[in-house]
Design a protein that fits this description.
This protein is mostly helical. It is built from ten helices and no strands.
């Protein structure tokens, strides 16, 4: 399937190269390593905190690589990911919505951190595209004495909306179009259907909060730069 996807993209002239193949190979290797690490976490529960730090660090580095074209993009994307994930996890774990067992913490943290990583990347990338598309308007506001954040407010607001819409659409269609992994995994793990549904609702609410904080923080920091991003280079 991945080879077919790679071939179709190449045939269509999409410049991703062998990225789908590389991604699935990395996923296989990383899942194998994670399986071994999780066995250690189960025997020494406090190491779950170290595992969460590892996931958060990896997510931050991943989104940072996608944000280098934007001034302050790296700082914005990392800060957005970290803030969104920590706020959401603090409420979920602090209020007892999810038990503090190693398996539960890692499961919910992985989903929340992954969601915040995606939202951070999308928010910063959409902000970059919006600022480039609205460059004349932004420069006009700057010339009139507006601050960088004031001149890019429209670009930032649109970026936040675009980054959150996919997750909100998936949330609305849960149970009708999609059966989320947390729900299915809990069922396959032997949990009662009601308990699995409750866990999934906690995850969806956490993703909504974490994604919102992530997008707002990322675009707020990105818009603080007095330097506009360079125009995208046209293909030669």
């Amino acid at each position: 399937m991945v080879l077919l996807a790679t071939g179709l993209l190449a045939r269509a002239g999409i410049g991703l190269g062998a990225l789908p193949l590389v991604a699935i190979l990395r996923a296989g290797i990383q899942l194998a390593a994670i399986t071994l690490l999780l066995r250690g976490v189960e025997s020494v529960p406090w190491t779950a905190a170290l595992f969460v730090v590892l996931m958060l660090s990896t997510a931050s580095l991943t989104t940072a690589r996608r944000s280098k074209e934007l001034p302050l993009g790296v700082r914005a994307s990392i800060s957005g990911t970290v803030c969104g994930a920590l706020v959401s996890l603090a409420i979920i774990l602090g209020t007892g919505l999810v038990t503090l067992g190693a398996q539960s913490v890692i499961a919910v943290a992985g989903i929340i951190i992954g969601g915040c990583m995606t939202v951070s990347t999308m928010a910063v990338r959409h902000y970059l595209l919006n600022v480039r598309a609205q460059r004349g308007e932004v420069e006009g506001w700057l010339a009139l004495g507006a601050t960088p954040r004031e001149s890019t407010r429209t670009a930032g607001n649109t970026a936040v909306s675009e980054a959150l819409i996919p997750n909100l659409d998936q949330t609305k269609s849960t149970g009708l179009v999609t059966l989320p992994g947390a729900f299915v995994g809990a069922l396959f793990g032997g949990a009662p259907a009601l308990e699995a549904a409750q866990f999934q609702l906690v995850v969806l609410a956490g993703l909504a909060l974490g994604g919102t904080v992530t997008a707002l923080v990322a675009t707020h920091l990105a818009s603080g730069s007095a330097q506009l991003p360079l125009d995208e280079q046209a293909p030669s």
